[in-house]
Amino acid sequence: MKKLTFSSSSKLELISHEAFANLSNLEKLTLPKSVKTLGSNLFRLTTSLKHVDVEEGNESFASVDGVLFSKDKTQLIYYPSQKNDESYKTPKETKELASYSFNKNSYLKKLELNEGLEKIGTFAFADAIKLEEISLPNSLETIERLAFYGNLELKELILPDNVKNFGKHVMNGLPKLKSLTIGNNINSLPSFFLSGVLDSLKEIHIKNKSTEFSVKKDTFAIPETVKFYVTSEHIKDVLKSNLSTSNDIIVEKVDNIKQETDVAKPKKNSNQGVVGWVKDKGLWYYLNESGSMATGWVKDKGLWYYLNESGSMATGWFTVSGKWYYTYNSGDLLVNTTTPDGYRVNANGEWVG
What we know:
2% of the residues lie in helices and 29% in strands. The radius of gyration is 23 Å and the shape is globular.
């Protein structure tokens, strides 16, 4: 069965748990206007669905470009596994991604989650095999079990400052993940926080500075080659006493770590008492000791960054004097390696083929 549409005279009010989970050939579904309640995990194993529609007049649910939502769009229920867009941004009203909401999607490469989103459900992005980049909002508070599982192309993940609740195995089996950043206000990490295949993982940045920071003995199941970058000797001691492997743990100077501040966008000759990195409207800027906004190349904690003429930090591919360079979303310049999209850069960071 490839198409399922209910009669316009249907009196159906409840569709139960996993009702469509095993319909592997279903491509299009139209829910009747009579439906008021949907059970959980409706589309758990659905691998062919391209579009979910909702009959006009339904008071509980809505479809936006084939994506299923609650009527007020506060919950994104399901993004079809065969919806063939490569990028997507969730609506501003969305507060929750339901369990299995992006499960098994075969096309999506870039996902931007709206500010205001608070919860990511169990298996939300599981087996979204093409997903390379995901932007998590500062409003995010909860990430449930195995939300990131089997994301074969995901290369970098930045957990925002305000996440308070994590499920077990929240990140599992991310073979191309190179860098993980854990936000400033994340005070504790659960068992099996990061595990599975992590062959490409090189670095974990922990921004927390609190003496309350804690991890479990089994929080990190990672290769011994992974380096930790932390803000204090206390965080280093917490990790050393709980890691089962002998990973390098590097304490960075807090003054040299990019931190969000409440200052306005910096301008030349306007120090406002701030030296170093500041963030404004999602962009990073750097104030030097004279109070001027820096442009061009800046070296900080041993890494190179490039600031555009406007002062904002460059990310991704950019060109300087006819030469191409690449940085992670964190702004770190890649050198003597291969970029995420498969190009080689030399020891100076220049693209060579």
